[in-house]
Design brief:
Blueprint lengths: L1 E2 L2 H4 L12 H15 L10 E8 L4 E9 L1 H7 L9 H4 L10 E2 H4 L7 H13 L3 E6 L2 E6 L7 E9 L5 H17 L4 E7 L18 E6 L4 E6 L10 E6 L3 E2 L2 E2 L3 E5 L1 H18 L15 E6 L2 E6 L23 H4 L9 H14 L5
Parallel strand pairs: 7-8, 8-9
Antiparallel strand pairs: 1-10, 2-3, 3-7, 4-6, 5-6, 9-10, 11-14, 12-13, 15-16
């Protein structure tokens, strides 16, 4: 059961694709998900795809936010930037008529002065009407905050899922399943072409789906479908695992995550995905280096270092790289067709592509 696009499939594979870092496999996974989600289905759903998001204790490689199209268009009223946790305590609860802010908003559980700060920030961003009357701050919504998030799917990327990688990954997947913060959990790995993919033989929780991607054909196969997790029920937050030794076992530690906490976290993650997308890697790399390039694979643009002749990682592509060479000033002083130099052009190109997935 495979899916993919003809224009992506017609591209030639990178000769060093088997040696590419996990970071590049992650970008390929994001691009595939953006065009073909959900796996194994005939019709693609509208999604926002992002990278390296989650909670303080758990960060996922890839996040797929399935969205309601009408709700997503309404979300665009609030701008490109995310609404952080403080703003989410204010903006969605703003009333349609002028109301004293303490009467309009639920008790935040922290001092009201922080709520006032969030109200002024929302006012500065133009997403909330604020006025002072009789020495009291009153608020009124500009737009109703929509219910735009339908499902959140977490994907772990392991291009080479051998026994050692599966052993390291299993506790993380068990944590995800127990907490049930995401609706589904998947593992994406590189297809080997064998009759039975090795990923199916590894010690991966049965609740997690397994997706094999073929870099050469830009297609994906569902090897194992995940179980849907109950995001509306309390979750179990594993804090410390018990261990069995020759002297006996030690107790594990966990706590329960109530549905309200999970709902808040899910919305915060979705807001961060809306702002960031998955093409923000140029913000953590050095496209202003004369060796930095973008290599096209179908419709996917991957970072490439001409000096090292490979797809580099974010940690490799930094000012401390021995091969780093800033663009000459004359490159940046030009005009059309690349105004401000190639590095600035690369950033603008990636931002334009990210913007296509957010309605204006």
């Amino acid at each position: 059961m495979s899916s993919g696009n003809a224009d992506d499939a017609s591209a030639t594979a990178s000769p060093a694709e088997s040696a590419d870092p996990e970071f590049v496999f992650e970008l390929r996974t994001c691009r595939w998900a953006e065009r073909n989600w959900p796996p194994g289905a005939d019709d693609a759903r509208p999604v926002i795809v992002s990278r390296q998001l989650g909670t303080k204790r758990r960060r996922w490689d890839t996040i797929v936010v399935e969205v309601d199209p009408d709700g997503l268009r309404q979300r665009a009223n609030f701008g490109r930037r995310r609404l952080d946790s403080d703003l989410l305590d204010v903006v969605p609860h703003a009333p349609p008529e002028w109301t004293y802010y303490r009467d309009a908003l639920p008790d935040p559980g922290y001092p009201w002065r922080y709520v006032r700060e969030a109200i002024h920030r929302a006012d500065d961003r133009g997403i909330l009407d604020v006025r002072k009357r009789n020495n009291r701050i009153e608020i009124r919504r500009k737009w109703a905050y929509p219910d735009w998030v339908e499902r959140i799917v977490a994907v772990e990327n392991k291009p080479d899922l051998d026994a050692s990688a599966a052993r390291d990954l299993r506790p993380q997947l068990e944590y995800d399943v127990a907490l049930s913060l995401a609706d589904e959990v998947w593992v994406a790995t590189r297809a080997t072409g064998e009759a039975v993919e090795p990923a199916l033989l590894e010690n991966v929780p049965v609740e997690a789906g397994i997706l094999t991607l073929d870099p050469s054909s830009r297609t994906a196969n569902v090897e194992w479908y995940p179980r849907s997790l109950d995001v509306d029920a309390p979750g179990t937050l594993i804090e410390e695992r018990g261990e069995n030794t020759k002297y006996g076992g030690t107790a594990g530690r966990f706590e329960y995550a109530d549905p309200e906490w999970k709902a808040d976290k899910r919305l915060q993650i979705a807001e961060r995905a809306y702002e960031k997308g998955w093409r923000a890697y140029s913000e953590t790399m050095r496209p202003d280096c004369r060796h930095f390039q973008l290599r096209r694979e179908g419709r996917t643009l991957l970072p490439y270092c001409a000096a090292k002749e490979c797809h580099q990682t974010s940690s490799e592509c930094s000012g401390s790289c021995p091969e780093f060479s800033p663009e000459p000033p004359q490159w940046r002083s030009g005009d059309w067709p690349i105004e401000g130099g190639p590095g600035k052009g690369i950033r603008k190109l990636l931002e334009d592509r990210r913007e296509r997935n957010r309605p204006r």
